[in-house]
Amino acid sequence: MRGSEGQPLSGSAAQPRRMAVLALMARAGDRGIPREKILSLLWPDADEERGPRTLTQALYALRQALGSDDAIAGTKDLRLDPTLVSSDIADFTAAVSRGDDEKAASLYEGPFLDGFYPPGAAGFSRWADDERRAISQDYSRVLESLARSAGARGDAQVSSAWWGKLAALDPLNARVAMGLMSSLAAAGDRAGALRHARVYEALLEQELDLPPDREVVLLAERLRNEANAQAAAPAPAPTRVATIEIDAESPAPPPLSSSLPPAAPVELHPTTPIVRVAEGQSTRQQPMRRSRALWAIALLVAGGALGAAGVMWSTRLRAPRTPTAGGRVVAVGHMVEYAPTGKPSLGAPLGDLLATNLARVAGLRVLSPARMLELARQSSGASDTSASAMIAAARLAGATDLIEGTLVARDGARLRLDLRLVDLASGAIVGARSVEGADVFALVDSGTARLAVTFGAQGPSNSVADVTTRSDAAYRLFVEGVRRFYDLDAAGAGKLFAAALDADSSFAMAAYYWSMTAPDPSSATQRIDRAMRLSANASDRERLIIRSDVALRYSSPELAAYADTLAVRYPDEVKAQVYRGISLVLADDYLAAVPYLQHAIAMDSLALAHDAAGRLACAGCDAFTQLLFAYWAADSIDAAEREARRWVRLQPKSAVARLSLASLLGARGRTDEGLAELRAAQNQGATVAAATPAAVPVQWLRVGDYARADKALHALIESGSPTEIPEGHWYLAISEREQGRLDSALDHATRYRAALREPYTLPSAASTSALLQGQLLRELGRARQAVTLFDSISRMRLPQIGGSMYARNRAWSLAHEAGALAAAGDTGRLIAIADTVQVYGARSVLGRDQRLHHYVRGLLLAARGQDDAAINEFQSSIRSRTIGYTRASYELSAALLRRHRAAEAVAMLQPALRGEVEASNLYVSRTELHELLGKAWDEAGRADSASAHYAIVAKTWAAGDPPFRARADVARARSAALNRR
What we know:
Blueprint: H1 16-28, E1 33-34, H2 35-42, H3 50-66, E2 72-73, E3 77-80, H4 88-97, H5 101-107, H6 122-152, H7 156-169, H8 174-186, H9 190-208, H10 214-232, E4 243-244, E5 329-338, H11 347-358, E6 365-366, H12 369-380, H13 387-396, E7 401-409, E8 415-423, E9 429-437, H14 440-454, H15 472-486, H16 490-503, H17 508-515, H18 521-534, H19 540-553, H20 559-569, H21 574-586, H22 590-603, H23 605-610, H24 619-633, H25 637-650, H26 655-667, H27 671-684, H28 686-690, H29 695-702, H30 706-719, H31 725-738, H32 742-756, H33 771-779, H34 783-794, H35 803-823, H36 830-843, H37 847-863, H38 867-876, H39 886-898, H40 902-912, H41 926-939, H42 943-956, H43 962-979
Parallel strand pairs: 5-6, 5-7
Antiparallel strand pairs: 1-3, 2-3, 4-9, 7-8, 8-9
Helix pairs in contact: 1-3, 4-5, 5-6, 6-7, 7-8, 8-9, 8-10, 9-10, 9-20, 11-14, 12-13, 15-16, 16-17, 17-18, 19-20, 19-21, 20-21, 21-22, 21-24, 22-24, 24-25, 25-26, 26-27, 27-29, 29-30, 30-31, 31-32, 32-33, 33-34, 33-35, 34-35, 35-36, 35-37, 36-37, 37-38, 37-39, 38-39, 39-40, 39-41, 40-41, ...
């Protein structure tokens, strides 16, 4: 909504409730909206005098901002004068009413009032939710009408575009899926239709665990049969480029046709990097170095724990779909160029383009150019793309065949490319081809067709330019940018990618790499959005890589479908296996992820060994990080330690590998061993060790040596850098809480937020860095304050935060709010909160969030004394007993004890002590876990075990606040009584 000068409303008129008044009138249109309804939605608790007065003041401010007293008309029923004030929602509604579908579609820019929640106006929020659904339904009807109209007049391409938009809005609708498939097939893109069938099938399994609709399956089968029949037909002679046939027995290549429209899979629209944290882990923000804030945490997964996020997958153990043994794997190697002096080099772009195009040949397994560059750098040093370096890289990747070439400039503008197929096992040349063309794209198209015949396959039906770029200058800049990128020159690479996009603004891979060199979150968001839009025009492999990587960076549920397809179609890409494993970890299907991650490590084992110091980014390192997390989350900590030690053996000088092992040893209470690994990590990589200044005191916190931990943390605060001081306050808050000194803990949590200096402001909500403060307020008995704070956090919405992040934060914070309400004895709102958490949790990528509503329902049932039902709900909310939401484990164990099921309570509580002090154990202190374990062992008749846990409680809370000292006295007395038996 804009004011009289066409500018967005600001000042007093932009206050949330006044904007809400404007939204209510805009949606009401000509019929207007009664004053009483506005008051009931926005000021339900105001008395008969204050409410109308407040509304009058709001209307005055709005009229001033809109530039006319007549802008808002009516006395009892208020409405906007359409001759003075226009709004997109009114225009959209009018277009729908008069049947102007194209206008309506152009006006719809997203969900109505998405993320707009005036504080203290729950009635308005419910109204907005209802209107949002109704408007979305109108938009869906508009899209379907446009799609069917275009199909009826024979415009299949336009029809498929409208169906694609509708499929993005309603991806699980079989009718929509069939409409899109049929229109794509009518436009000549059977492959796109079949791709969408696979996307639909994967999403249906993820979201609903259901098989695909029978009609969709039949349509896909018919299209597949038609495609097979067409492929079996004899191919006409080539028409685009001239070729020179060397092997006389080889038939002619298939024709090169014009570009076909791209497929329209479900679109991903990320708007901000998403925090990836372990299930149950705090989403606290820290300085850029170790931040959970919006930018630093958008880096690749190798830097830390992976978020246990994802869609709901079945718990079946699924092995990777690997190719049969003996299959040929092709790499494109060195291209020698003989060109006149002063001419731009074409050798490097030619090799990249050829590998990209060969990957489009059905059934041919081709290593990506990026993978070859990565391995060449690891084996031979930065920027080495000589023939020997590329051969070494191909062998590291497990390739069986290598394609090399010689490029020669012939008379005039003609180019000639001589290709050689080399058997890597023997080094013998087993085939040769020569092609000619006017430019590098023609050479690649014809060369691909010739090589496809050699491998017994059929080449792509359209040109490589249709899925990359038609500008050879853009491609040269892009290839040089990729080389700079793998040489860790992000700034230089970014300039080259930007220049490539200046040369060709539709170049998807240039936009993708450009997004990875962005200096800040705002520009990264814009660049990623651009790469996602352009990815529809990229080749199949590049599109899947872009969307898999972006989905991973944003923790998007689409990752599962993209990663599965990538792993099936391109099994020789190690990142495909890593993405697939990560998608299963995100779905909390931990053990199902193991085969994929192990396969990735095996594929990258030689590259890992070549980089003993672990200084280069590598897919195998990412796989190790995820594998350790998967085993830890599954409470297979022996297996996690075994794999961590294997990683250290492969990369004995890797600081990251040793830090990972140290963390696992600390979780097992083996502090001396953990500290030894930390010292080794410091010796191997000072920069990595410096990024975790609290790593040593955390080891002491885990074993309850609070005096040593506190001394080190106070020293960190006194002498640390501005980025280290918040770290010290954060862990001191945890330490003081463990010792039962909650006032001191709250002070440090408050000072942590102040020292953090968050790089953004939240005018209407607290940030997630306040979660620990809310937890401490709850435990201090100030539950009402905790409820208010958690509710504020749940409404955090920043410009860079998209729907998934918002939904995740909303579900997570509301679950904490429910816990605070239960602690206050206020259970009246728990049903509504449980329903809200279920709605938002379903939109979140975190498996934890999808189950959180069970935790809230368990709280309500437990408060009602229905422990058996509460136990079932709590159990449904828990996936990992070690790195899960330990508050749920605690509440479940308490309910089990009330039902005298002590052995089950012990089995639930013991793994919780193997979690992280700042992650899963942040939501219930380890001392509380020891206290409840003491009671559980006591009831189970295990005096020694009970006494040991009571003794820990007595020692830890001995100097705590009065309530904790009293609990320490009880524990001490009970421990003494048990020891006298």
